[in-house]
Target: Phosphopantothenate--cysteine ligase
Amino acid sequence: MAEPRISSIDGRLAEEFAVPSHIEEVKGKMSAFATHHAAAGHRVVLITSGGTKVPLESRTVRFLDNFSSGSRGACSAEYFIESGYAVIFLHRHRSLYPYTRTLSTINILDALQVRGEADGAGNFGEVVVNQQVLPNITKVLKKYQEVKDNRLLLPIEFTTLSEYLHLLKAAAQALSTIGNKAMFYLAAAVSDFYIPASEMPEHKIQSSDGPLQLSLNMVPKILSPLVKDWAPQAFVISFKLETDATILLEKARRALSTYRHQVVVANILDSRRGYVLVVTPSTQTELILAQEDIQNKLEIEERIVSNLTSAHSKFITEQVGL
Amino acid sequence: MAEPRISSIDGRLAEEFAVPSHIEEVKGKMSAFATHHAAAGHRVVLITSGGTKVPLESRTVRFLDNFSSGSRGACSAEYFIESGYAVIFLHRHRSLYPYTRTLSTINILDALQVRGEADGAGNFGEVVVNQQVLPNITKVLKKYQEVKDNRLLLPIEFTTLSEYLHLLKAAAQALSTIGNKAMFYLAAAVSDFYIPASEMPEHKIQSSDGPLQLSLNMVPKILSPLVKDWAPQAFVISFKLETDATILLEKARRALSTYRHQVVVANILDSRRGYVLVVTPSTQTELILAQEDIQNKLEIEERIVSNLTSAHSKFITEQVGL
Model:
């Protein structure tokens, strides 16, 4: 497999994918966040999370999407913060969010109760959380507020593939200033295919025109310039989701040799909550949750994050000796 | 345009789209709900809401989707209930939900506060809603609870196109028992295209295979058997979303003459929150929110629902004379 030409990837990004209008503002925020936390002795991880939307029409009614609730990214963000990292959370709009994710399985109105009555003087009854419905709410809320008070989480949203690509580039450039203290944890489910703006119909495709033939181009592999050009000192983890277990390890190894980054976290769609394979150029480690662990509500992200923060420490230490 | 052959649509539904395993259970629930409310003198509206997911692989990583937050459907459900209807809310999993939709623009944890401290005896502090962040929460919560207590809302979820199609058919059959007291308000954004199970790859499509060619079949137009066979006495409204205003009215008229139902609510993507065109075989009525109305937080769904409930009354009255 020929190595992607980096200069052409940077060029394609500029030409074929619309630049979000707020890109410079967001880049400034990420840069200030990274500098501030590095000065305070924190490491900084950029987490990408959720799927990307690929429009089929420029006034978009239809789009291609990738399966991802954002659970892996949102959950991992919490464990990275527990481990002392500051987190830039680059996530799909409306995908799962750290801390809030624990409320996502219920309708919040089922957990609220009005207490007291309006007194006619503009004071309404109080609304309290029923802690039988949400038993962990005080714990979750206190953590959330602590993280907010200490500004340990910088949320950035994307919806389309174009936004994702440009925001990731901006993040990489913003984090390059803190060298090997930066980690990239690329858990988003990014489309491999897209329709270039020049080939896209403006209006909604009409079903009366008959069956639909779509021809999609390949999305540039931006892991390549990220590792080589944009943040060459950083510790970089990519994810590989497959449905076929027989090709998983080979695909992970091939990604490492193509992009020359540090780690691939590989997983299978059906077992992703209980099994991952952490692959580095010289090792492969299985992380597994047993049935008992799952009953005890342990999360595999705790083990993934523990494994990677140790590896990041080692990566930093080894470079001191160079 | 040739009229679709109904028998073949029913057949295609059974052959090409996987039947959800809980279909009979859901049909039973919808049927009991309709019978109960019709006996209590209520009319019943089936609202469909949100977009459909069309898998590109049988172990699905990638899918085609339709733009829809579910705002139109969720909002309309509230106004139908205000107008005395009982509502079956057939909606995309995680799309906007009646009442709860008003909390969707904030992170709920930003609206909660812990008050008091844990006392060590297992009693934790209370968690209360900050009503400066959510000024309407008591009103919304009381309405939500009233609707729940009176069982005026039956929520049914779908994710894929297959689930949607089979659940809509089941709903139509369940509602056929209450004749013209039933309304169908088909606001979901349903895909026009799909890949039949027989032509779908099992595993994740590999990007290393190069650019992607997709060939999608046309989804059967089930409005046709719904109107003719499944619920022939019901009052049926379909929606038409276009991006090109010049073809809107013509498309609405063509749908009415093809399917022979009662109303098309037609709208343009960019202006859908402030403008719709309500088209019947003999009339066309523009509903418009002025700038001032929008500032006063009026919702166009209030006018759509008002227009349609009147039309439904007239429809029922006219049939008495037949």
